[in-house]
């Protein structure tokens, strides 16, 4: 008899009339909000504008969801396209099945589009949201708990997960709660990235690379514990190989980036230090130019004659002054000559 264990929910969905409220979907949504909230705070601290992270997330989140689903469907295609399966189920994302590898890869494409539209460097944005993504994963993993999926080997530990469902080949029993292990690991990754970023002033995408490397290190051993069906290559699960390859790429980026571009970006969002905003400033300059042009136009219009007359008067006055100066100088020279002559005569 087990004295202590983690119970599984009796169901993962609650119906509010005709509307189903799914625990898995709620975990994903809450995770996204936490990632945007923390990313916004870090972006502002780096010198960016409030709201920029959310604006770019409008691109990154849908791309990430599509990428995560595509990775899951491609790597577990037999769940949807084998005999006796309904391919329509591949679109039922609310039933679970998101691959973080595809979510990050395609989510980065969406973030790149959003950053490009705002004139923001993608590495700086990635550094700001890295800890938030880790926390989003930590929250999202609890969706697996609601669906009673992705658990580990059988165990009699006090924190064993009690699986009660027998759907899709599940066998009720007590298993390692790998969802909980990964959730706690992701919280640790978030804290590590925040600490390292403050300590070493990580920039140019290195905070994001640290998140990727740290997550892959934990995912490797957690993945190794899981007992759900998966494709194997040379005795290792496919996700183990993915974690290993991505880990090496992230470490390589950390080393090469630190050598080529040490320090961090001085400016992450052009014009963020201007309280009116770059667009407002540009608009003011344009308005000022138009106003100046408007003021200059009358001089070319009805007042041309007056301006021309005034110019002619000034020219005549100047010419007269010159002539008067010449006359004055001539008179003084004449007087001096006469005085000299008088002196000689005397």
Summarize the structure in words.
With 346 residues, the protein is mostly helical. Helix content is 65%, strand content 6%. The chain has helices spanning 23-45, 52-75, 78-81, 100-118, 122-140, 142-147, 178-200, 206-225, 238-260, 278-300, 304-345; strands at residues 6-7, 13-16, 19-22, 161-163, 173-175, 232-233, 236-237. The strands form three sheets. It has a three-stranded mixed β-sheet, with no helix packed on it. A two-stranded antiparallel sheet has the order 2-3. Strands 6-7 form a two-stranded antiparallel sheet. A hairpin with a 2-residue loop joins strand 2 (13-16) and strand 3. Helix 7 runs antiparallel to helix 8. Mean pLDDT is 83; it is low at 277-315, 317-323 and 325-346.
Helix-strand layout with pairing:
Blueprint: E1 6-7, E2 13-16, E3 19-22, H1 23-45, H2 52-75, H3 78-81, H4 100-118, H5 122-140, H6 142-147, E4 161-163, E5 173-175, H7 178-200, H8 206-225, E6 232-233, E7 236-237, H9 238-260, H10 278-300, H11 304-345
Parallel strand pairs: 1-4
Antiparallel strand pairs: 2-3, 4-5, 6-7
Properties at a glance:
346 residues; mainly alpha; 3-stranded mixed sheet; 7 strands; 65% helix; disordered C terminus
How is this structure best summarized?
Helix content is 65%, strand content 6%. The protein is mainly α. β2 and β3 form a beta hairpin.
Distance between the termini: 149 Å
Main pleated sheet:
3 strands, mixed
**Poorly predicted residue ranges:** 277-315, 317-323, 325-346
The strands making up the biggest β-sheet line up spatially as 1-4-5
Reading the helices and strands in chain order gives: EEEHHHHHHEEHHEEHHH
């Amino acid at each position: 008899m087990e004295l202590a264990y983690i119970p599984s929910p009796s169901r993962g969905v609650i119906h509010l009339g005709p509307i189903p409220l799914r625990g898995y979907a709620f975990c994903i949504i809450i995770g996204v909000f936490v990632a945007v909230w923390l990313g916004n705070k870090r972006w502002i601290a780096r010198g960016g504008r409030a709201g920029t992270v959310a604006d770019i997330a409008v691109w990154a989140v849908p791309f990430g969801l599509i990428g995560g689903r595509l990775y899951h469907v491609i790597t577990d295609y037999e769940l949807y396209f084998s005999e006796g399966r309904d391919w329509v189920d591949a679109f039922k994302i609310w039933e679970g099945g998101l691959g973080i590898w595809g979510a990050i890869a395609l989510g980065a494409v969406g973030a790149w589009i959003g950053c490009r539209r705002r004139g923001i460097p993608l590495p700086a944005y990635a550094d700001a949201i890295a800890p938030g993504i880790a926390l989003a994963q930590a929250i999202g993993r609890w969706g697996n708990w609601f669906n009673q999926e992705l658990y580990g080997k059988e165990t009699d530990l006090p924190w064993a997960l009690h699986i009660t469902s027998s759907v899709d080949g599940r066998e009720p029993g007590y298993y390692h709660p790998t969802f909980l292990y990964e959730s706690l690991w992701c919280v640790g990754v978030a804290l590590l990235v925040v600490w390292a970023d403050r300590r070493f002033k990580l920039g140019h995408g290195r905070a994001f690379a640290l998140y990727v490397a740290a997550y892959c290190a934990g995912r490797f051993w957690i993945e190794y514990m899981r007992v759900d069906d998966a494709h194997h290559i040379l005795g290792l699960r496919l996700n183990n190989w993915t974690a290993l390859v991505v880990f090496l790429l992230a470490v390589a980026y950390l080393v090469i980036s630190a050598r080529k571009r040490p320090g961090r970006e001085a400016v992450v969002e052009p014009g963020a230090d201007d309280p009116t905003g770059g667009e407002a400033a540009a608009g003011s300059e344009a308005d000022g130019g138009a106003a100046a042009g408007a003021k200059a136009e009358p001089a070319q219009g009805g007042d041309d004659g007056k301006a021309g007359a005034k110019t002619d008067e000034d020219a005549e006055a100047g010419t007269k002054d010159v002539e008067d100066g010449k006359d004055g100088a001539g008179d003084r020279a004449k007087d001096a000559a006469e005085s000299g002559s008088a002196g000689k005569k005397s």
